Amino acid sequence: MAPMLERYVSPGKGNGLRATTKIRRGVLVTSAEPVAYCVSNKRETERPAAAGSMLHVYLAKRAWPGHKTECRCLCSLLPRHPTDSVRLAARLIFTLVSVRNLTQTNLHKEIYLDSMPEQKKEGLSELATMLELYMETEIPDLKQRMTSELPLSCREALSIIAKVTCNCFTISDGELQEIGVGLYPSLSLLNHDCRPNCVMVFNGTELQLRAVQDINPGEEEQHKSHQWKPNLLTSAGEEVPDENLYKLKITDMALDASVHLGRWEEALSFGLKTLPSYRLYYPDPHPVHGVQLMRVGKLQHHLGCIDDALESFKEAFKILKLTHGEGHPLIVDLMMKMEECRSEIDLQQPSN
Question: Is residue 179 domain-resident?
Fold first, then answer.
């Protein structure tokens, strides 16, 4: 645990993290590597070029030693395909059984199966059955070994699949696109908030927690995931109509489709339409808004709107330097884009 944080019991929420000292916005609060991780199923089926992310290639290469074992499990389960949570749970079990170092693998969010809705419990039970079938080739005596070698809270397939599903994080690339899932036990202590004081970003598989607001000693560390949140409020305190959120999702999908088809003018038009909503749903500083500004800037630059592109990049930089830190690869790329724009603007100036 980072020296500026401490674990405590948050009333009504369970375990939590809080600051032990004053933390300024933009500071890297803590970081962690995953206990276990895997590339998402949908990325496994994409060619690296189609994935559009070198991080996908990096993650796949780092996951390769574990994939040799995983490949045999995948073949044994065909024609069925395990979910990401099943594959991640299997990787965790392989790690625990082979390394037997349990000190850093405690999953902090407790799962109370007795109080869980029956429909959800049935779904988790199906995943647990798939997990047992998936691992049967590599560990025929799985139940016996889980009973004798795993922590007391992880000795049943249903329990471990429930904990993994609740505690896992989506690993994203620089543009916040999903590329994998991982377990970061210490950061599972964090609680969510629609107005967070921290955000999470990834540098490779390393998960970084950065303060986006000043945090006082004793204040709870809260973050906001990249998922859409319901019941949002406007600056006037009124609830945002759901249809606005759906329109934003559709417009963002139209932006992605236009980029895929090479219709750059349409893509820029859709991108510009999303920015007011991104400011509303993700108040600054938030990486989602910063990344969207960077995407719009890239489209403006591609279409020759250099002055507009530079302004978009500047706005993105104000946000992302706080959420990612100035040494992050995304920031390095953004600074290069700004320098390119400045150089092109200088070249357009008439010489004396």
Answer: no
Q: Quickly tell me which residue has 């709107």 as its tokens.
A: 305
Q: Terminus-to-terminus CA distance in the chain, angstroms?
A: 60
The single-letter code of the amino acid at 37 is Y
Q: Residue 192 carries which side chain, given as an amino acid letter?
A: H
Q: Are residues 89 and 59 in the same domain?
A: yes
What is the distance, to the nearest Å, from the Cα of residue 351 to the centroid of all Cα atoms in its chain? 48
* pLDDT one-digit tens code per residue, 54-79: 555 555 566 556 667 788 888 988 89
315 domain residue, yes or no: yes
Helix (H, G, I), strand (E, B) or coil at 223: strand
Do 340 and 308 meet the contact criterion of CB atoms below 8 Å apart? no
Which has the closest alpha carbon to 105: 94, 96, 117? Answer: 96
pLDDT at 341: 97
pTM greater than 0.90: no
User: Could you report the per-residue pLDDT of 253-307, keeping only the tens digit for each?
Assistant: 999 999 999 999 999 999 999 999 999 888 889 999 999 999 999 999 999 999 9
- State how beta strands 222-223 and 191-192 pair: parallel
d(CA 205, CA 180): 9
Tell me how far CA of residue 172 lies from CA of 12, 29, 123, in angstroms: 30, 19, 26
H/E run at residue 198: strand 198-203
Please tell me the distance from the alpha carbon of residue 314 to that of residue 17, in angstroms, as a whole number: 33
Q: Phi and psi (nearest 5°) for 233?
A: -115, 145
Domain housing 300: 242-348
- Pick from 18, 46, 79: nearest CA to 215: 18
For residue range 96-127, what is the model confidence (pLDDT) as tens digits?
A: 776 554 444 555 555 556 677 888 889 999 99
Output Rg (C-alpha) for the chain, integer angstroms: 22
For position 24, which CATH number holds?
A: 2.170.270.10
Tokens 């995953």 locate to 34
